[in-house]
Amino acid sequence: MNEQERMTRRRFLKACGLGLAGLSLSGYMTYLFGGTSVKDVLKSTLGGTGADGFRALENFRINSVEPTPNVQLADYRLTVDGLVANPVTWSFAELKHALTEVEQVSDFHCVEGWGIKNVRWTGVKMRELIQQVRPMQTATHVTFYSLGGVYTESLSLAEAMEEETLLAYGIYGKDLPAPQGYPLRAIIPRMFGYKGAKWVYRIEFTDHQHLGYWERYGYNVDGVTAR
Ligand SMILES: Nc1nc2c(c(=O)[nH]1)N[C@H]1C(S)=C(S)[C@@H](COP(=O)(O)O)O[C@H]1N2
Ligand SMILES: [Mo]
Fold first, then answer.
1. Which InterPro entries match (predicted)?
2. Which of 126, 183, 216, 218 has the maximum number of C-beta atoms within 10 A of its C-beta?
3. Ligand 1: does its nearest atom lie under 6 Å from the Cβ of 145?
4. What is the pLDDT of residue 142?
């Protein structure tokens, strides 16, 4: 780890968990880096919240490594490019016109040990978007880029095609609050929250997997096991 990574790690630890009730530092490190399953994390810590400076929003803790970008919806564009036959750049209105709106109720869980049951998202299915842009034979992965300029995440094409993989713009029947990724965030319910980038403005199809932000600090690319 170089100095910058150490700083980031330290900031991360400070930001997201030293205050978690009932978790010792070593316990915390264990579940951060010790091969813990989603179920174990949820079992051990669901319901336990700490006075740790997170801003609660509908029981979410706003988790961001960058400040909330100031997005004017009129200026927003989503670009889908890379290894696709039909690249697109859509305004928000064009996106909603091109794809079918769906509602989906699913649980949300963060690797840090908090989770929320039955979150009601509104958005569009990645699967439908993928069918429209028509990936080339060589495309194996998709990378999500975030307007914050710092955060990226990626999925295999198969993961992106899963029934429940969403691009969400609403929550509980309202627009997504800005800190939660307005106007567009990725939701992959069976994976930890870090797999879903907030403020997505570009989706690139590639022939290899880009490591996501937290994956460079040791999180698993599969998004299901902590390590
Ligand atoms: N752009 C961006 N997306 C992000 C993150 C981030 O720091 N930046 N954090 C991820 C993590 S670790 C989690 S748990 C969720 C948190 O979502 P929330 O802020 O709505 O609770 O967003 C994910 N997407
Ligand atoms: Mo997270």
1. OxRdtase_Mopterin-bd_dom, OxRdtase_Mopterin-bd_sf, TAT_signal, TAT_signal_bac_arc
2. 126
3. no
4. 98
The C-alpha atoms of residue 113 and residue 130 are separated, in whole angstroms, by: 32
pLDDT digits (tens, 9 = 90+) for 144-198: 999 999 999 999 999 999 999 999 999 999 999 999 999 999 999 999 999 999 9
Asked if 58 and 176 count as a contact pair (C-beta separation under 8 A), the reply is no
Q: Does the beta carbon of 194 lie inside 6 Å of ligand 1?
A: yes
CA of 199 to the centre of ligand 1 (A): 10
Does 8 sit in the ligand 1 pocket, CB within 6 Å?
Answer: no
Ligand 1 centre distance from Cα of residue 64 (Å): 5
196 to 24, 37, 56, 91, 188: CA distances (angstroms):
27, 18, 18, 21, 6
Using the structure block, give the residue that is written with the tokens 């800005």.
Answer: 178
Residue nearest to atom 10 of ligand 1 (CA): 194
Nearest to 116 by CA among 45, 14, 174: 45
Residue nearest to atom 12 of ligand 1 (CA): 194
